[in-house]
């Protein structure tokens, strides 16, 4: 705080009371030490002069004149001289009391300003900053009312020791602008002094600092939230890095960004980069500065030629290591053409965001690995299905056709029957291949959403399998993306089992949203005994009833199968809504 009004006034080199007291003591000492000898000397001189008159009458009048007039006059002027010193001392004491009062008021203002600065620093958000600043302005300036407003429609008000609920026309207003936008409006019972106006301007500057700090904290939180949302919503590595680095670059005003990730051999290679020329990638080796950041394990800044090796036109580059408990994941780079782009106060925030990006990369890599495992499992399942089902059936059909070749002339009727049997078997296997292809078609849940994807799938399922398939949807449905994938996978498995095993003519699918989402698949097929085959792996999708139950219960839901031979099957799954 640099406002002069808030600084304690400096004491004079020689305080007035000390000067007045010194003068008064000197006068009393002078009168005490000099006046008696002087009076004695004057009396002796006067008496000697009177004795020379040799006239008793003149001597009497001379004594009356001297002792009756001159003595009291000398006494009066001596006392008046001392009284003037006393009055000077009283004036000095009054000046000292006034100076002490000013000093006390200044100290009180300084204490109030310091408390205001501390409260502004501790305020959690912009609204709290405005309320704290308004109350502090009332406390510091002695105003009856204070209103603080900033761009965006936010404001804070405070009232001092007054019975008025709102400012009135009898008060004296004072409005000062806040640097960066906004105004501080104060109201006083008396016209504000120049010192008060100067103090109000100084308060406005401090408030502007507090408001800007609150805005920066809000922006930091919003940026962290956006990064967190990007991590949750995006699994594609390139799009993920693009989003995260874009938000970091926008927060710092950087014009270029890049991410180097460590490959399976521990070599840092370029995964994603963007500057003024556009996006690039391709696995190029990392520059020396990236290796230096990786070895240091802390954020580093570089300039000059080393910065130009990272981004061709960059004057300054900030490197952030991406590490987790398993070691180095990569290095994140931000660069710009301006040499003063990066504020070192924001580096801890960027380091935190780089840590979030590290988790995102780990998650994306784990997702890619799980997809590779799923593809491998699906290939194994398809191979098993072809080997155990279609391949054996086709081999059997080929065997029958070989028999037909030998019986064609010997027993034409039997040969014809064998051809019909082989034809029936081939048509059944064609239907089986179509069912497998239908079950393997990629489903874009992210593009269409759960409800539209389910509607399309149920409709296509009925057409592909020549049965009546209906869908009923009630209530509000709002699941997380992971839960939506589980629900749809359950629907796929249930319908595939209907197509392969139920021998049904109708299947009804319903989705009901409430506190839980309930999926119900009911067919009018042959039914079965769940106790006998609940652990068996289905040939349609690789998941048996036990595996489907485990998936649902892992998400906090419930799963049950109701079936009996000759009475169809009902499959129900409940999942908690997001």
Features of the shown structure:
kinase; 58% helix; iron; 578 residues; kinase activity; cytoplasm; 5-stranded mixed sheet; EC 2.7.13.3; alpha+beta
Question: What topology does this entry show?
Answer:
Blueprint lengths: L15 H36 L4 H67 L3 H16 L3 E6 L3 E6 L12 E6 L5 E6 L5 H40 L3 H16 L3 E7 L5 E8 L2 E3 L7 H9 L3 E4 L1 H6 L5 E9 L2 E10 L10 H61 L4 H29 L4 H4 L1 H16 L2 E8 L5 H22 L3 E8 L2 E8 L6 H4 L11 H10 L3 E6 L5 E8 L2
Parallel strand pairs: 11-12
Antiparallel strand pairs: 1-2, 1-4, 3-4, 5-6, 5-10, 6-7, 8-9, 9-10, 12-13, 13-15, 14-15
Describe the structure.
The protein is α+β, with helices and mostly antiparallel strands. It is built from 14 helices and 15 strands. The strands form 3 sheets. The chain has a 6-stranded antiparallel sheet with strand order 7-6-5-10-9-8, sandwiched between helices. The longest helix has 67 residues, at 56-122. It holds the Pfam family HisKA_3. The chain crosses the membrane at residues 34-54, 60-83.
């Amino acid at each position: 705080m640099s406002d002069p009004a808030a600084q304690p006034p400096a004491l004079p080199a020689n305080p007035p009371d000390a000067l007045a007291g010194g003068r008064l003591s000197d006068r009393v000492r002078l009168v005490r030490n000099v006046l008696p000898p002087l009076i004695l000397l004057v009396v002796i001189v006067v008496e000697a002069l009177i004795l020379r008159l040799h006239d008793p009458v003149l001597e009497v009048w001379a004594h009356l004149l001297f002792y009756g007039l001159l003595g009291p006059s000398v006494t009066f002027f001596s006392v008046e001289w001392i009284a003037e010193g006393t009055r000077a001392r009283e004036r000095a004491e009054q000046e000292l009391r006034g100076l002490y009062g000013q000093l006390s008021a200044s100290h009180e203002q300084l204490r109030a300003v310091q408390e205001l600065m501390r409260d502004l620093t501790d305020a959690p958000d912009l609204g709290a900053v405005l309320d704290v600043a308004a109350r502090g302005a009332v406390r510091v300036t002695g105003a009856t009312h204070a209103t603080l407003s900033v761009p965006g429609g936010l404001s804070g008000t405070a009232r001092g020791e007054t019975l008025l609920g709102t400012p009135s026309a009898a008060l004296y207003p004072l409005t000062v602008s806040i640097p960066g936008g906004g105004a501080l409006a104060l109201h006083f019972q008396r016209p504000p002094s120049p010192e008060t106006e100067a103090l109000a301007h100084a308060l406005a500057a401090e408030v502007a600092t507090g408001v800007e700090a609150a805005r920066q904290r809000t922006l930091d939180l919003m940026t962290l939230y956006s990064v967190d949302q990007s991590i949750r919503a995006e699994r594609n590595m390139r799009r993920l890095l693009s989003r995260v680095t874009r938000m970091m670059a926008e927060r710092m005003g950087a014009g270029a960004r890049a991410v180097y990730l460590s490959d399976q051999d521990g070599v840092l290679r370029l995964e994603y980069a963007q500057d003024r020329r556009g996006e690039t990638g391709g696995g190029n080796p990392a520059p020396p500065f990236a290796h230096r950041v990786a070895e240091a394990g802390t954020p580093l800044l570089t300039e000059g030629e080393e910065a130009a090796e990272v981004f061709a036109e960059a004057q300054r580059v900030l490197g952030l290591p991406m590490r987790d408990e398993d070691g180095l994941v990569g290095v994140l780079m931000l660069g710009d053409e301006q040499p003063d782009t990066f504020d070192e106060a924001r580096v801890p925030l960027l380091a935190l965001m780089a840590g979030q990006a590290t988790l995102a990369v780990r998650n994306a890599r784990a997702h890619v690995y799980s997809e590779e495992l799923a593809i491998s499992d699906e290939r194994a399942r398809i191979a098993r299905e072809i080997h155990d089902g279609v391949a054996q059936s086709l081999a059997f059909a080929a065997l029958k056709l070989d028999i037909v070749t030998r019986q064609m002339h010997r027993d034409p009727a039997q040969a014809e029957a064998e051809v019909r049997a082989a034809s029936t078997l081939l048509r059944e296997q064609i239907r089986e291949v179509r069912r497998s292809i239908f079950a393997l078609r990629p489903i874009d849940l992210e593009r269409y959403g759960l409800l539209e994807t389910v509607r399309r799938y149920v409709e296509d399922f009925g057409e592909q399998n020549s049965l009546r398939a209906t869908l009923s949807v009630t209530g509000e449905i709002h699941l997380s993306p992971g839960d939506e994938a589980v629900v749809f996978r359950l629907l796929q498995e249930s319908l595939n089992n209907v197509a392969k095993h139920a021998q049904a003519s109708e299947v009804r699918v319903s989705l009901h949203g409430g506190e839980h989402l309930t999926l119900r698949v009911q067919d009018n097929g042959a039914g079965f005994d769940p106790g006998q085959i609940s652990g068996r792996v289905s040939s349609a999708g690789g998941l048996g009833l036990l595996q489907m139950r485990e998936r649902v219960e892992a998400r906090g839901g419930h799963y049950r199968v109701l079936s009996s031979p000759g009475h169809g099957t009902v499959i129900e799954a409940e999942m908690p809504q997001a």
